[in-house]
Amino acid sequence: MPHLPGTAGLYPVVEAVQRRLVVSPRTEEGRVYVRLTVSETGDIQDVRLLKGLNAAVDSAVLKAVHRLPRFEPGRQNRQPVKVSLMVPITVLRKYPRKLYFRKPYVKPLPVDPTVPDLSGLSPG
Predict the structure, then answer these.
(1) Which residue in 13, 25, 41, 74 could disulfide with 2, CB within 3.0 to 4.6 Å?
(2) What gap in Å lies between CA 11 and CA 19, rounded to an integer?
(3) What is the mean pLDDT of residues 40-53?
(4) 11-91 under CATH 3.30.565.10, yes or no
């Protein structure tokens, strides 16, 4: 699947569109669906609005999509291919700092057999 440089998946694309989205504080909140095609070179082509809210929000979302950086193209059998994406954009009046924050996976430390297991002890 195509992705933004240094990221993986669709969430960074949604977050990048939302960071570039400029709407008025009195705008209608909701969800807008956009379909775009990422070419073999990573360029965005054929941007279409599948479902919108109103003309002002729809045009702001389309402008934000066109301002996205070049993608890493999708690959099939190690060859770059053209891929179509459907991106759901949630339009809010005010966005939290990180909309899609996931904690990084931390591999648990191995259990040392020389340390006794104290998990069964009661406090106090």
Answers:
(1) 74
(2) 12
(3) 90
(4) no
Copy the structure tokens of residue 94: 């005010």
Higher-confidence residue of 27 and 50: namely 50
How much is the pLDDT for 86? 92
**CA nearest 67: which of 11, 13, 24?**
13
Return d(Cα 92, Cα 35) in angstroms, integer: 20
> DSSP string spanning 18-79?
HHH----TTPPPEEEEEEEEE-TTS-EEEEEEEE-S-HHHHHHHHHHHHTPPPPBPEEETTE
| Length of the chain counted residue by residue | 124
